[in-house]
């Protein structure tokens, strides 16, 4: 039960420590950023200025939208489809999805751009930051007859000279020459750049000075094609939104209106093409029949006038049968004429997309009707997608296949018609033999009357078909409805200004943050307790010593009531806690390298142990560079080195200096620097002396050589109760210290405590953690802070303010 409770307490303590260090790390980084506040001010000022300049050149982009209703097979009154087959719009172009594809076809967009010259010319004025387009507000209009390649996309300036003349200029550079020319309004101007005519508009103002730019038709078509968006207004409906985005909404609306109107007209024109073709074909047949009908009618009238009795005698059944056969033969001839028309159409590769339907001229063959329909569909698909489309080649192959099948079908139909015609001619020959047996006058009248009726019936048939085609053409309406003219819906880049400011502000903050982080990360020295713990390999920080002005003295004895002395008392308590006793303690002090403050730490630690009025000894074991004697201003005499070397004149008692310089602790100095300090320290004699000293003194502090540089300290580290490892703030190399601590860890040195030395609490990044000492102990450096002044006043009786001011 006790073990479980202990584990819980340890876990809680560890969690609290981790939480505290995390908070300390966050505060440390915040203070480091605040320390370099000027970087943020400069960065924000620069990037906010850039954002302001960018927003000065901001131009709104508008979304213009028009609405269309796309339907299938509209425009016929009741019964028309039954009355006339073959004149409706082909299935491929009645499908809504195909209509949408046709809407954005390259050829249609090109015709729209060519319909308005203003679509390929920009008139504008250029300010310091923005360009102001003058669509429909330009003081002049330009009519293009010819434009050279060098003039496309080049900026030209045009200004009024005197109301009658103008000047056109263009700046040059390393690749192109400057250009200048003058002209008169209403008269053509021709030069190496272009052949144009400039005219005044209703918006003309004397002394104008504007710019213009000419564009290729294809480039504007590509631009409109890329920006055109067509989608359904709602799912399941045939209403589509046609939208375009640009910075000249009036021009975009005009483009959309023209596009929708042309699309509606194209749809109607395609439906009318079939009727027009049929009418033209019938007119060509009527032209031949008119003379024949007039001649036969005149012969009949002449015969009746000369032979009145014979004309009223009537005809026999043979003449009626012959007339019926001739009517059938006329239908066959009409079908032959259609087959001839269709054969010539295919042979000449006509691609107008409008073939007369077979059913309109009596050819009742389903296979041919289907092939004609497919042929028309493919022709129109190829026309709409254009030769640049990747599916144009596939349509061409399909068209070739349909054409081949049509030719085969036409040959078969021609053979069938020939068989029918030969059979009719044989029947007509039999009837003719019977008629030849009639009286001559009667035969003559019957022949004239038969020819007239035949021509009259054929003519009436053609006139009726022509009337039907005219009715179809007149009743045709477009399958599509221009539902709503284009209008401006919204500004699409309304939030760009705020985005520019926010993004620039973010960049302005990120850059100095990265700079500060880079500076801090690349800094090779340990500068905070959080950094020290990050390289400590599991070792803890036992104490933190703030910077003092008294680097060369024993502060504990000189200023016993100071806050610095109290931090050494805290460190003493930590050592007692870690070694689990208050007496008979031996402490080794080392560091990564020379200059980390180990001698300052060891001498003051010995002094704070001596404050308990217990025998305390400070051993100077740094035989390579002894510094205890220099710090304490000891007299030069034989010491530890002579003792270890076996000098008979030196005893342990004679080597130890009792309370030198009035200090409250004894010192065992190095004496003379030996030639082989490492061998002396690692000898058995050193351990014997150390064990003897433990018996004499309650507290022993050993100032060893820097363990990061030499291995001398290992001799007494294992024999001591603990090892204090001095790390100097802003002085100790992180990588060097990390490797040294890692080596100590691998060598089994467990009871090691880190002492963070020489911390400047006046620096912003340390004041948060260590400044409370100054406030608590009455440090004058916090007098200008209300919080610390209040803390100081509450605790002013604990420590001597005069000492705090000196230290």
Topology:
Layout: H1 2-35, H2 37-56, E1 62-70, H3 80-83, H4 96-103, H5 106-115, E2 121-126, E3 131-133, E4 140-147, E5 155-160, E6 165-170, E7 179-184, E8 188-190, E9 194-200, E10 209-214, H6 217-227, E11 229-232, E12 239-246, H7 249-306, H8 308-311, H9 317-347, H10 366-385, H11 392-436, H12 440-475, E13 480-491, H13 496-522, H14 529-534, E14 540-546, H15 555-558, H16 563-579, E15 585-591, H17 598-610, E16 616-620, H18 628-632, H19 640-644, H20 652-655, E17 666-668, H21 677-681, H22 684-696, E18 699-703, H23 714-717, E19 722-728, H24 734-746, E20 752-759, H25 764-776, H26 786-794, H27 801-806
Parallel strand pairs: 14-20, 15-18, 15-19, 16-17, 16-18, 19-20
Antiparallel strand pairs: 1-12, 1-13, 2-3, 2-10, 4-9, 5-6, 5-10, 6-7, 8-9, 11-12
Keywords:
807 residues, alpha/beta, 4 domains, six-stranded antiparallel sheet, 27 helices, 20 strands, transferase, non-specific protein-tyrosine kinase, EC 2.7.10.2, ATP-binding
How is this structure best described in words?
With 807 residues, this protein is of the alpha/beta class. It has 4 domains: 2-59 and 495-522, no CATH class; 120-224, no CATH class; 276-475, no CATH class; 529-759, P-loop containing nucleotide triphosphate hydrolases (Rossmann fold), CATH 3.40.50. Helix content is 53%, strand content 16%. It contains 27 helices and 20 strands. Strands 14-20-19-15-18-16-17 form a 7-stranded parallel sheet. A 6-stranded antiparallel sheet has the order 3-2-10-5-6-7, with no helix packed on it. Strand 19, helix 24 (734-746) and strand 20 (752-759) form a beta-alpha-beta unit. The protein is elongated, with a radius of gyration of 55 Å. The two termini are 50 Å apart.
